[in-house]
UniProtKB/TrEMBL annotation:
<dbReference type="InterPro" id="IPR006016">
    <property type="entry name" value="UspA"/>
</dbReference>
<comment type="similarity">
    <text>Belongs to the universal stress protein A family.</text>
</comment>
<feature type="domain" description="UspA">
    <location>
        <begin position="1"/>
        <end position="147"/>
    </location>
</feature>
<dbReference type="Pfam" id="PF00582">
    <property type="entry name" value="Usp"/>
</dbReference>
<protein>
    <submittedName>
        <fullName>Universal stress protein</fullName>
    </submittedName>
</protein>
Length: 275
């Protein structure tokens, strides 16, 4: 059975993303491991050493009580979506969230990490939130990031941004494996400046590898790379965008366009990160 790791802080953002975790688990016959990580706050003053143990014990108890109250909420969400058959286990840990996510991902051989993301201002600095960014960079698992205002919709159309480099074929194969499960169509899009010769464009190879798959290939000449991608998403009713982690810095440029486009994009589209 495949495994999905679901880091949560039990916020509305996380609960919203949990719907995607449930739907994914149902589609690929996976179990879900929810993970809540907390950190103990050290007092800002010094002369309290004799009370430190009591303070830490109180904080641990408080976190445990909150955890105990919130876990059943996730189970009720599964029942409300007719997905109560999905196996769900729960883990509570103290430590650094990113470190613990990476550790448990390796230990449990996690296939997917699904997490909610928050933050629609200063996006260049906190692309999907710094936590999601670090997890994407460090994890060997596929990461599905769900923006806070994203409402669940069936994944019918996936956009895969690429420059048609050979290194992207394996990443696209992983996207295609997921697309088959959801019966999704994939659009591969390469936006390149006009009057430029590309010697590393292997679009013919891509078409040969995926010739019998539900995949279309597009190449558009434009200096407005980010604008073309955003327009493509809107005009083609894209439900999810997939990126190869090697191109994440390029993908961040999407958030350098106008604020209105940034907010519209960031609030509606789940992002699949392929390691």
């Amino acid at each position: 059975m495949k495994k999905i790791l679901f880091p949560t802080d039990f916020s509305d953002v996380s609960k919203n993303a949990f719907i995607y975790a449930l739907k994914l688990a149902d589609a690929i016959d996976a179990e879900i491991i929810t993970l809540h990580v907390y950190q103990l706050d050290s007092p800002a003053y010094l002369d309290v050493s004799i009370y430190l143990q009591e303070i830490y014990e109180y904080e641990e108890l408080t976190n445990f009580e909150n955890y105990k109250d919130e876990v059943p909420v996730l189970r009720k969400m599964a029942e409300a979506n007719n997905l109560s058959h999905i196996k769900i286990s729960n883990v509570l840990l103290q430590g650094n969230l990113v470190d613990e996510v990476i550790k448990i991902s390796k230990k449990e051989n996690i296939d997917f990490i699904v997490l909610g993301t928050k933050g629609v201002t200063h996006l260049r600095e906190i692309f999907l939130g710094t936590i999601a960014t670090k997890i994407m960079n460090e994890s060997k698992a596929i990461v599905l990031a769900i923006p806070e205002k994203c409402e669940y919709k069936p994944i019918e159309k996936i956009l895969f941004t690429t420059k048609y480099n050979i290194i992207d074929i394996e990443a696209l194969q992983k996207v295609q494996a997921l697309a088959r499960v959801f019966h999704s169509h994939i659009d591969c899009l390469n936006v390149k400046p006009p009057h430029t010769v590309y010697k590393d464009d292997f679009v013919v190879d891509f078409k040969n590898v995926f010739k019998d798959q539900n995949v279309d290939f597009h190449s558009i000449l434009s200096n407005d790379v980010e604008g073309v991608i955003l327009n493509f998403i809107e005009q083609n009713n894209i439900n999810m965008i997939a990126i190869h982690v090697k191109h994440r810095s390029f993908f961040q440029k999407l958030f350098d366009v106008s604020l209105s486009k940034k907010l519209a994009f960031h609030s509606n589209i789940p992002i699949l990160s392929i390691p």
